[in-house]
Amino acid sequence: DRDTDKKRIEELLEENMVLEIAQKQSMNESAHLGWELEQLSKSTDLADSEKSFVFELNECASSRILKLEKDNQSLQNTIQELRDASLTSRERSLKFVELEKENQQLSKKIEKLQNQIEKEKQSNQDLETLSEELIKDKEQLRVVMETLKADKDRQIKDLKQENDHL
C-alpha cells in the first residue's frame, strides 16, 4: 500500500508539473494576443481586417478559456485524488500534512486560473468594444471626408464661376 501510494503521489506531482508548464504556455499565448491587439489599434485601415482579427481573437480567447477550464477541472480532480490517497495511507499524519500543503497550493492555482479566466473574458469584451469603437470612428472619418470633398468641389465650382465672370 505504501509503495502504491508513493507511486501515485509521484504520478500526481508529474501531472502537476505538466499542468504548470501548460499554464506558462497559456500565459505566453495571452501576452502574444495582447501584442496583436496593440498592432490592431495602430492600424485602422480596413474594417474587414479588424472584424477578422476580432473574430480570430475571440476564437483564441474562447479556446484559451476552454483550455483553462479543462486545466481547472484536472486540478480539481487531482486534489480529490490526493485527498482520497491521503485517507487510505498508513502514514496518514505525515503524508496528510504534505498533501494538504499541495492541496492548498493547487487551490491557489485554481483560484488564479479562475481569476485569469475572468480577466480573459473581460479582455475579450474590451477588445470587442474597442473594435466596435474603431469601426464607428472610421465610418465617422469617412463621412467627414465625403463632406469635405463635397465642400471642396463646391468651392472649386464657385471659384470657376467667379473666374469666368471676371
Largest sheet: none
Question: What's the helical proportion of residues?
Answer: over 70%
Overall body shape: rod-shaped
Overall pLDDT confidence? 85
Total count of helical runs of at least 4 residues: 3
Q: How many strand units?
A: 0
Order of helices and strands: HHH
The rounded distance between the terminal residues' Cα atoms is 110 Å
Structural class by secondary-structure content = mainly alpha
Strand content: under 5%
pLDDT below 50 for ≥5 consecutive residues: which ranges? none
Computed Rg: 29 Å
GO molecular function: dynein light intermediate chain binding; microtubule binding
Protein name: Protein Daple
GO cellular component, one term: centrosome
Keywords: Coiled coil
Task: Give a description of the structure.
The structure is a single chain. With about 170 residues, this protein is mainly α. The chain has 3 helices and no strands. Helix 1 (about 1-40) packs antiparallel against helix 2 and helix 2 (about 45-90) runs antiparallel to helix 3 (about 90-165). The longest helix is centred in the C-terminal third of the chain and has 74 residues, at about 90-165. It is rod-shaped. The termini are far apart. The model has no long low-confidence stretch (mean pLDDT about 85).
